[in-house]
Structures are given as structure tokens and as C-alpha cells.
Amino acid sequence: QVQLVESGGGSVQPGxxxxxxxxxxxxxxxxxxxxxxxxxxxxxxxxxxxxxRSGEYRTLADSVKGRFTISRDNSMNTVHLQMNxxxxxxxxxxxxxGTTSVVxxxxxxxxxxxxxxxxxxxxx
Length: 124
Known about the structure:
Blueprint: E1 3-7, E2 10-12, E3 18-25, E4 33-39, E5 46-51, E6 58-60, E7 68-73, E8 78-83, E9 92-99, E10 113-114, E11 118-122
């Protein structure tokens, strides 16, 4: 069974940067496309970024384009989310997710594997 463990969350000020990491175990990491989603209190879980199995293709939500970068290291079974110029509206619990599906990659239901989440709070 695939297990995903996120780390790197925290409390920062607007304009600061954070890097989230997700470590995978129990499966073939390179066979999964990986994504980050986030969920703020009272809101639905929303897509943030996705990276293909090889790392060649990346997709970002419009709200984070130009500020966030997704990357992966298949030799280390890790995926990262570099977040720059953070804004208060980025405050949420961030989740790492994995799937072998190649369709509906922005949809949470396409991802059978999830981490426990890591909190990111952006506030002055």
C-alpha cells in the first residue's frame, strides 16, 4: 500500500517562501503522477499542482502560476512544492496525492493515495 508523508509546512508572513515535501513508500513511485491539493477551512479541496511520472510535464492552478513550482526526484521517491511570494489566501492544509491515472488530474477523486496534510499559514 502506498503511503505519503508531507512535511515542511509552517507559519510565515506574506511574501515569504516555503518548500513542502512529500515522501512516498510502499509502491512504485515512478509509476504515479503526483499532485498537491489544498483545503482551507469551510472550502472544498482544490487542485494546486501536478507533475507527470517522469517529471516532464507540470500543471499549475492559475492562482499559483508564477509563484509555485512542483518537482520530483524519482530516485528519492519524493515530490516537492516550492512556494514563493506567499499570500494570505494560500493559507490551507496542503495534501500530497498520487495516482496511476492520466485523466482528470485536477480532480481529487482521481487520486487514491493521500498524505495526512501539512498546514501552511500566511499571516502578518
